[in-house]
Every structure is written in C-alpha cells, then in structure tokens.
Amino acid sequence: MLFTFQLKTPSHGLINITPEIREAVKESGVMEGICVVFCPHTTAAITINENADPDVKADFINGMDSFFPDLNIFEHSEGNSGAHIKSSVVGAGETIIITGGRPLLGTWQDVYFCEFDGPRNRKFYVKII
Question: Which residues make Cβ contacts (< 8 Å) with residue 18, sequence separation at least 6?
C-alpha cells in the first residue's frame, strides 16, 4: 500500500513526519512488515533522530550547514549545491520495521523530513509491505 503526503516546508529544518507514518501503518492494517519512507527530492532527505530535545534538530541543521556550506567554488548555477550534498549524505529514505501494527521506533526516535533548500511544496511517500 502506497501513501503520498504533501508538505509546505520552511527555508530549512527538520519536520516531524512520524504522525503521518503512524497513521499510514494503522490504515494499512499491516501487523508485521516494513514501512519504507521515501523523499523524491534532490535537496531534501529523510532521517530518524531524537524527538525529546528540540536543540537536537537545530544542532543537526547547524552542523550540516557548517560541514556543507554553499561555496563559490561550486559550479551548479542554482547556488544550492550544499543542499544537494546534504541530501545525498543524509539519504532519500528510511526503512522501519512494523510490529504489532505499529512502527518500531526507539523511545527517543521520530522520523523527520529534512528541508535543505526551502521554502517549498514537497511530498514524501510511505510504502507499507
């Protein structure tokens, strides 16, 4: 079963998409399986990270900006090469185990859509198998 979700993103940041994933798993009726979350954009990504301390999200973005800034040496004419690099480093998706009809996430884990080049209208897919 495939679900498509739409997002309006800020200029950059982590958007918690765990509620949408939980709802997709519930709606699918799958009790034991896997959930694949996929981002079809080249300047955004999907990650799993801490959900308790909001500073972790800020630190994540600040760290990514520090390690992968937009530099004058890049040739890509849109000026967002840093966002393309961040997207490739973080990755386009995550696979989550489903057990007991729920995504198997750790106590402090949530799933995040990572925006590196917004604001934009984005989407992500959730495939339940």
Answer: 51, 103, 105, 110, 111
